[in-house]
Each structure stands twice: as structure tokens, then as C-alpha cells.
Amino acid sequence: MGHSAAVWDTRAAIAVSKDWNGIDQVMLRNPQGASAKVSLHGGQITSWRNDRGEELLFTSSKAIFKPPKAMRGGIPICFPQFGNCGSLEQHGFARNKLWTIDEDPPPLHPNDSHGKSFIDLLLRPSEEDLKCWPHSFEFRLRVSLAADGNLTMISRIRNINGKPFSFSFAYHTYLSVSDISEVRIEGLETLDYLDNLGQRERFTEQGDAITFESEVDRVYLGTPNCIAVLDHERKRTYVIRKDGLPDVVVWNPWEKKTKSMVDLGDEEYKQMLCVDGAAIEKPITLKPGEEWTGRVQLAVVPSSFCSEDLDPQ
């Protein structure tokens, strides 16, 4: 756990409480009143609110809050597999496991701590995990909330195994939107993508921006480190900055698929959009002792801001 003592009251910045299943959850706050909530079930961010108290992440009204089931919404972590393209359960096991608070993590850059409230979590494989995925690892996750309300996730995965292993990864980010038909994504134009609705066939994006009129389930490849999700009705833009994550998943189940999902309301596809920083097409391979870092920073800005203003770094 961390905070910047010189700036504001540290005791108010971080609170640990129990959810209704008795699982610890951590609330991070900043001086302006923004907040983020992280559950130790899955290391999943379940809430991110701005300084006006508006919820910025989508959670289904029919979400099942019952471990080991992953909750539909927030930001589940997909590791060591994304989707069903492997031998493990859908999206891997990290999102269904109980994480611990890491009291003494290896240090990060001072910029990742200064002026932020943050929590460090740790996942190590259980005997059961090693039976289905026989690789020893340490997965360290830092979630931080900055004074400007930006939310940052830093994942550090270390191979403590005697042999190399490979994995895919995503921060499966459910953004709350006013109406999916009023939303567009900028920054993915002209890129190749794998279409999960068509046997992962490879296509090239033709649109000036991505808009939504039907089900979309794509993995965009070789993406820039900064993309924008514009919500016209709310006149706000989500800015997603990432590092170590070359791919971006874009997903909305639309009407027909939603009706087949028990943990999503029939009309709720209109209020959500998943845009994930990810490493999927080329899995990450770690030799013994090697560590990988993947980070995403989420910000919200007024929509007068446009993609020309985006800093490519």
C-alpha cells in the first residue's frame, strides 16, 4: 500500500473492507474525490469514479458476484490465456483466483508512486493451478489513482520456473458509455485486425474511425500506445495509454449475443464497450528469471479534445 504523505491525509486515501462474500476489497481515493475499488478476487478493478462520483466502468446489473465466477464488468485480468485460444478456461485463471496484498513489492519508478494512492497485489500459482498450467510465476499488480483521477494498472510477471513459458494477456476493460451507437474509437484506423467472429481471419480496418452497428469482436494488431474512445452524448473521451501491450481488443456483443448471456441484461450492450490493452497475437515468452511489464493508464477528458491532441508516447 502506498501514498504520498507530504501532500494529503494518507489514512483517508486507502481503505480495506470486506465485500458481501467476505473477500477483501481496497478503495483508493484522491484529494478531489475520485475513487477506484479493487477486489482481491481476481485482482479485478470493480469501480472507477471521477471527482463528481460518476461511474466510468460498466458492470452488468446481472453480474454474478460469486467466486470462483468472474464478475461481468470492471477490469478483469486475462492471464495466462485470452479467450478460448488455448487449453485453459476462458480468459485464463488469474481473474478467478484470490490475490494477496503485497506488503513489500520490488520497487517501481518513483513516478509510479509520487502523488498517487496505490495498492500492490500478488498472485502465485496454487498446486491446483500448476496441474493445469505447470509454470511457476509471480504476478505483481499495482493499481494506482492519481491526483488528476487517472487510473493506472502495472502488471509485472516473472518466470520463477526452470524453463521458459509463454502467455497471452489482456486488461479486459469494460467502459461505461451513454449509447454504443454514439461512440467511436480513434487511433486504430488502417490497422490489421483478427476477426473473432470469422475464425480469426485477418482484415484491414477501412473506416476513418471505428463505430458500432452490430456485434464486434476483434484483436487489432501493432497498435499505437495511445487511443481514444469518444462518447458523443456525454461529451467525454476515454484516453487509453499503454506500454508493453501491442494489441487492442474491441468487443461489444450486440443484441443477439447478449440475449444468450445469463449475466448481461438484454439491453445492456448499449451501455458498454470493451477496449483492452493486450498481448495476444504474439504470446509473451519469458526465460527463467525474466520479467515482463505491461501497463495501461486510463484518463477521461472533455470531448473537445481529439485524437490530433494525443501524445503518441
UniProtKB/TrEMBL annotation:
GO terms for cellular component: cytoplasm. Signal peptide: none annotated. Pfam families: Aldose_epim. GO terms for biological process: carbohydrate metabolic process. It is an enzyme of class 5 (isomerase). InterPro entries: Aldose_1/G6P_1-epimerase, G6P_1-epimerase, Gal_mutarotase_sf_dom, GH-type_carb-bd. Keywords: Isomerase. The keyword Chaperone does not apply. GO terms for molecular function: carbohydrate binding; glucose-6-phosphate 1-epimerase activity. This is glucose-6-phosphate 1-epimerase. The lineage of its organism: Eukaryota, Viridiplantae, Streptophyta, Embryophyta, Tracheophyta. The keyword Nucleotidyltransferase does not apply. Belongs to the glucose-6-phosphate 1-epimerase family. Its EC number is 5.1.3.15. It catalyses: alpha-D-glucose 6-phosphate = beta-D-glucose 6-phosphate. Substrate binds at R72, Q90, R95.
